[in-house]
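#onboarding

Welcome to the new folks! Below is a worked example of what a typical request in this channel looks like: someone posts a single protein sequence, and someone else replies with the predicted structure as tokens. Don't worry about understanding the tokens yet, we'll cover that in week two.

Example request:
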Amino acid sequence: MITLDSEVDSYISLNNSRYSYFAGNNYLGLANHPDFIKAATGALQKYGINFAASRRTTGTSDIHLELERTLAGYKEKDDAVVFASGYLGNRLLLEALRDHYSAVFADAQAHPSIRDGIPNDVAAISFYEHCNSGSLENLLKRNPHHKPLIITDGVFALTGEIAPLDRIAAVASPYGALIVVDDAHATGILGKTGKGTPEHFGLGKADNIFQSETMSKAMGVYGGFIAASHDVISAIRQKSSFYGASTALPPPLVAAGSASVKYIAAHPELRTRTLENARMVREGIISAGFETSDSITPIIPVYLGDRQKARALSAFLKENLIIVPAVDYPVKTGRYIVRITVSANHSPEQIENLLAVLKLWRDRHD
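Example response:
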């Protein structure tokens, strides 16, 4: 673990030294955007630090409603709801849909928020092999009497793999299955306009696919949201104890969220630059002899043979003023990973230096 003493961008400061930062989830480089800081500061001055109440009582403000309208418009949905943390989104969504399924089928490497989000009264829970639609189909065939709900990450947090949503949707169709996609790492990144995994696969209009999302990754802010039909959003607002008993999202985050959604919609070049930086890093580490995932996302894992090697590589990078963590959470993949993440703000010089240091380590450990 490192302890930050600066803002998070393509560079950070640690103990009065400057490091290239290829970590975290600030994919579009927006966590410190001056427009968002201005919006947050204005809201802080007008509304204070906290609305100090739940949304169902006296905690809903005009800026909450503005943010939800803005999110719904961006996602081209009827309505949207925001809440304290993206981690809660899967629970809120699975509760809202509870009357429409009797069994859950989840990817074996699903994020903990998916596992924690399955309601306690769901007895039939199955896990299909990671990103394997054939395994999913076999499970569906063996459970013909259930009304199925399939849930997966859109982009997997450790490996950057994109769930094969097109194949999952094709398998789901004959069974009338609902599909929930945790798009925390896809929103703002995948799809022609950054709407996430369904848009990436041309499934943005599918009425059986639902997304849980966050503003804390590519959007650079904080807080979870769901954009969906009026019926689904109304069910969350009226029935969810998590939503009803939680303090409303604080004013600075709400205002910054609205600024972020509008900015992302108006600046598609950020997504293009992020994906181009990811392409350069991925191709470079493959050329240097490392193994990685076959993806296009800004999450680029370096797979190592054991935990000690992963930690040694991370330490070597830090010695050379580059921060890239060795990670084995939030899920166990059975592999040892140094997780590189790129952003729109990384310069060609930073990328070249990262690849040179990686190659130097590889040359010394062949």
